[in-house]
C-alpha cells in the first residue's frame, strides 16, 4: 500500500498473493488437466488424482507469480494490467519472486513424490518454459512470442494424462497440439483490439509489428490446422461419435468466426466486433471441446 | 523502500500491517491444515491401507 505522504510498500494482503497466481488462467489449466486425467485409460486413486490437479494449479500459480515479477514494469504501462499487485505497488517485488519460486519448487516436489516423476519433470519444464523462455526471452523479442510460448499452456492435459498412465502417447500429444494451435488465433484476436495497450508497453505483438492484415491472415490460417487436429482423435477412432459431431460443429463455428475476422478491414478497436466474438468464442470452444472429449472417452471406457 | 528495510512506521501503518499479518496467518493456517490432511491421505494410499 502506498500512503498519501510516504512512498513505502507495506506487507501485502493474502488477496494480493492470490491475485499473483492469475486465478482465471489457473482455472483453464485445471480444467484442461482434469480433462486429460479423466480421458486417460486406466484408473487413478482419487486422492492421487486430486494431488496431481492441485500440483498443476500450484505450478500454474507459480508461473503467474514469476510472470508478474518479471513483467512488473510492462504491466504498469497497460491499462488491463496496471491494477495488479506489483505495478499498483501493493506488494514488494522480492515477495512476488520468493512466492513464485516457492510455489514452483513445492508443486514439482509434491508431484514427483505423490504422483510420478514424469509428471513432475513435465511440470518443471512447463514452468521453466513459461516463466523463462516465454516471459523473459520470447515475449519482448519476437512477434511469434505466443506461437512458441503457447506450448507452455498446452502441457496441462498431457500432465493430467501422464498422472494416470505414467507415459505420454499419441492422444495426449494431440491434446497438446490442439491447445498449441488454438493459442495464436485466440491471442491474436485479443491483440487486434488491444493493439494500443500492447504498443504502449513495447511488446512486439503481431498486429504492432506486421500489421493488422497479416495478423488476420495468420488467425484464419492457423484455424485450419487447429480444426484438423481437433477432429483427428475422432478420425483415428480414439473417441466416439459424440466427440466427432461436437468437434465438427465447434470447429465450423470457429472457422466461420475466423473467416469474418479475415474479411474485416477495421482498424479501430470499436469496429472489431468479429475479433471480440472470436476471442470470446475461442474460450468457450476450448472448454466445450475438452469437456466433451473427456465425457466421450469416459463413456467409451 | 521495502518492508525489509528498517523504518519507523506510523501508528496507522502499524495497524494495517498487523491486520494483514493476521489475515495472512489465518490463510496460511488453513492451508497447512489442508496439506496435513492431504499428506496423511497420500501416505495412506501409498502404503496401500485402502488396497
Which series of helices and strands of chain A comes N to C?
A: HHHHHHHHHHHHH
Q: Tell me the span between the first and last alpha carbons of chain A.
A: 53 Å
Q: Of all protein chain pairs, which has the greatest interface, and how many residues does each chain bring to it?
A: A-B, 21 and 23 residues
Fraction of residues in H or I helices of chain B: over 70%
User: What is the number of E strands of chain B?
Assistant: 0
* Biggest sheet details of chain A: none
Q: Could you list the spans of chain A in which at least 5 consecutive residues all have pLDDT below 50?
A: none
Q: Give me the oligomer status.
A: heterodimer
- Class by alpha and beta content of chain A: mainly alpha
Helix content estimate of chain A: over 70%
Radius of gyration of chain A: 20 Å
Q: For the terminal residues of chain B, how far apart are their CA atoms? A: 56 Å
Low-confidence stretches of chain B: none
Strand content of chain B: under 5%
Describe what this molecule looks like in 3D.
The complex is a heterodimer of chains A (301) and B (51). Chain A has helices at 14-20, 23-39, 46-70, 72-75, 93-115, 117-138, 145-165, 170-193, 195-201, 206-209, 212-235, 241-263, 273-300. The model of chain A has no long low-confidence stretch (mean pLDDT 93). Helices cover 76% and strands 0% of the residues of chain A. With 301 residues, chain A is mostly helical. Chain A is flat and about 65 Å long. Chain B is mainly alpha-helical and 51 residues long. Helix content of chain B is 73%, strand content 0%. Chain B is rod-shaped, with a radius of gyration of 19 Å. Chain B starts with 10 loop residues before the first helix and ends with a helix. Chain A binds chain B through residues 1, 3, 7-14, 17, 45, 47-48, 50-51, 54, 92, 94-95, 114, and chain B through 1-4, 7, 10, 12-13, 16-17, 20-21, 23-24, 26-27, 38, 41-42, 44-46, 50.
Amino acid at each position: 500500500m502506498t500512503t498519501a505522504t510516504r512512498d513505502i510498500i507495506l506487507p501485502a494482503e493474502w488477496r494480493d498473493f492470490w491475485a499473483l497466481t492469475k486465478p482465471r488462467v489457473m482455472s483453464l489449466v485445471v480444467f484442461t488437466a482434469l480433462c486429460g486425467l479423466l480421458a486417460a485409460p486406466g484408473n487413478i486413486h482419487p486422492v492421487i488424482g486430486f494431488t496431481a490437479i492441485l500440483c498443476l494449479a500450484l505450478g500454474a500459480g507459480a508461473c503467474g507469480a514469476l510472470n508478474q515479477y518479471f513483467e512488473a514494469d510492462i504491466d504498469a504501462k497497460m491499462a488491463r494490467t496496471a491494477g495488479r499487485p506489483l505495478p499498483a505497488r501493493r506488494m514488494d517485488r522480492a515477495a512476488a519472486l520468493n512466492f513464485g519460486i516457492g510455489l514452483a519448487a513445492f508443486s514439482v516436489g509434491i508431484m514427483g513424490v505423490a504422483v510420478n516423476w514424469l509428471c513432475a519433470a513435465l511440470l518443471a519444464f512447463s514452468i521453466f518454459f513459461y516463466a523463462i523462455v516465454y516471459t523473459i526471452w520470447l515475449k519482448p523479442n519476437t512477434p511469434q512470442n505466443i506461437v512458441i510460448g503457447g506450448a507452455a499452456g498446452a502441457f496441462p492435459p498431457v500432465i493430467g494424462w501422464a498422472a494416470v498412465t505414467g507415459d505420454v502417447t499419441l492422444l495426449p500429444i494431440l491434446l497438446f497440439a490442439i491447445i498449441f494451435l488454438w493459442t495464436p488465433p485466440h491471442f491474436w484476436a485479443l491483440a487486434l483490439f488491444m493493439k494500443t495497450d500492447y504498443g504502449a508497453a513495447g511488446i512486439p505483438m503481431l498486429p504492432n509489428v506486421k500489421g493488422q492484415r497479416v495478423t488476420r491472415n495468420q488467425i484464419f490460417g492457423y484455424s485450419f490446422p487447429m480444426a484438423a487436429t481437433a477432429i483427428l482423435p475422432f478420425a483415428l477412432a480414439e473417441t466416439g461419435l459424440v466427440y466427432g459431431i461436437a468437434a465438427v460443429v465447434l470447429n465450423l463455428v470457429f472457422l466461420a468466426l475466423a473467416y469474418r475476422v479475415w474479411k474485416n478491414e477495421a482498424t479501430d478497436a470499436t469496429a472489431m466486433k468479429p475479433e471480440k466474438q472470436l476471442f470470446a468464442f475461442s474460450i468457450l470452444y476450448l472448454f466445450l471441446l475438452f469437456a466433451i472429449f473427456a465425457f466421450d472417452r469416459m463413456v467409451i471406457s | 523502500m521495502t518492508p525489509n528495510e528498517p523504518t519507523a512506521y506510523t501508528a496507522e501503518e502499524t495497524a494495517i500491517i498487523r491486520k494483514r499479518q493476521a489475515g495472512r496467518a489465518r490463510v496460511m493456517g488453513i492451508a497447512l491444515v489442508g496439506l496435513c490432511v492431504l499428506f496423511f491421505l497420500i501416505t495412506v494410499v501409498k502404503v496401500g491401507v485402502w488396497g
